[in-house]
């Protein structure tokens, strides 16, 4: 890892460590990764989950089945191809994902309020640029 990437990564982990929501659910990292995949990509089915996590289709299917039982995901037939089943987040799934991957907005607001207007603008612009580039590089 280049020194710039290493420094940025250290900053990111510091930010997340200090500003994340308290974790209240007992939930596996694997479940969070599946919820993120369903949120960030369109038309996700069990096959895409298996490919993304590099696990067998049967294992992915079992994960999804448990997540449906916990009301984190719903399954829906693809309107274009009835043979295909697509996954979608439930409202509970959206909340669980948000609490386990996002920064606590109140804590973040407190930090942002401490910044000068120019600093706040720089931070917002930097995160916007990183987000845009991240979406196009993978």
Automatic annotation (TrEMBL):
The UniProt record lists the keyword Hydrolase: no
Domain of life: Bacteria
Record-level Gene Ontology MF annotations: DNA binding; DNA-binding transcription factor activity
Pfam families to which the protein is assigned, alphabetical: Staph_reg_Sar_Rot
Keywords, alphabetical: DNA-binding, Transcription, Transcription regulation
UniProt KW Transcription regulation keyword: yes
InterPro entries: ArsR-like_HTH, HTH_MarR-typ, MarR/SlyA-like, Transc_reg_Sar_Rot_HTH, WH-like_DNA-bd_sf, WH_DNA-bd_sf
GO BP annotations listed: response to stress
Domain HTH marR-type span(s) in chain numbering: 20-120
PANTHER family in the cross-refs: MARR FAMILY REGULATORY PROTEIN, TRANSCRIPTIONAL REGULATOR, MARR FAMILY
UniProt protein name: MarR family transcriptional regulator
Organism: Planococcus antarcticus DSM 14505
């Amino acid at each position: 890892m280049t020194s710039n990437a290493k420094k940025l990564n250290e900053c990111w982990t510091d930010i997340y460590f200090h500003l994340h929501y308290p974790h209240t659910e007992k939930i596996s990292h694997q479940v969070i990764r599946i919820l993120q995949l369903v949120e960030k990509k369109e038309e996700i089915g069990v096959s895409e989950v298996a490919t993304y996590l590099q696990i067998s289709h049967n294992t992915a299917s079992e994960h999804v089945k448990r997540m449906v039982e916990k009301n984190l995901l719903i399954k829906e037939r693809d309107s274009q191809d009835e043979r295909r089943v697509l996954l979608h987040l439930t409202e509970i799934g959206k909340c669980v994902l948000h609490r386990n991957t996002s920064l606590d907005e109140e804590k973040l607001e407190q930090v942002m309020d401490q910044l000068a207007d120019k600093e706040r603008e720089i931070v917002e612009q930097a995160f916007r640029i990183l987000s845009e580039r991240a979406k196009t590089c993978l």
